[in-house]
Amino acid sequence: MHPLDEALQMQQQDPGLYTAATHPGYANAVGPFGGITAAQLLQAALLHPQRLGEPISQTVHFAAPVNEGEFVINAQPVRTNRSTQHWLIQASQDGHMVAMATAVFAKRRDTWSGVDATFPHNLPDPQSVAPMQWQKRPEFTNRYDLRYFDGVIPHELSGQERPHGQSSLWVRDEPPRPLDFAALASICDVFFPRIMIRRQRWVMIGTITLTSYFHADSALLTQVGSDYVLGVARAQVYRDGYFDQSAEVWSAKGDLLATTHQMVYFKD
Q: pTM of this prediction?
């Protein structure tokens, strides 16, 4: 079984109430990788028998550290309309809430479509970019094939500040796995903290909240399959102990699959 599918396994206690667990393959420096927590929360709603349509957005609040072991997820639809469904998803461990999410699911329909965002040009082929080889990398990064061609964390951090914290990379699950909504939710958080790219040094950080917007439907994700997707990440402002970073996730053919934005705490 793929490591992501192992992490997404959960036992149903009641409709929407599941027992899940952390996975050692997705460990971060402290606790689990936030992207895998986001994927587990979304998966609980995806499994619910009353689910309507497919996810179009998810906002995760990381309220407290998740300790190694089991935790409980309660995913319930709080309002269902004809074409949209609003969700409250909560994760608790030892009687305390550790993460919560709101999500919106919807029935998509055929309409006029257009894209204002610009797909980058003159991109290197994924096979021409060396995968990240970095001994100090957190364990969860070994679950992804990360091929940075701009804004990578170097082997030796120089401390010489860059003019910006933007990065571009090709990425897919490792080993390769067909893309679905849970995998896309985790990839939305796969980008290194922008402050480390900008300042070229280690900084203590913690994501406070992460919002992802899913622009693809399941048919488009099926077309992507296990191919690489393009990630472009940047920050806007670093100030008073917090910074935000945003990212776009594109298919190799130029379809915008997701956009994401998060607020991050840092201690300098």
A: 0.96
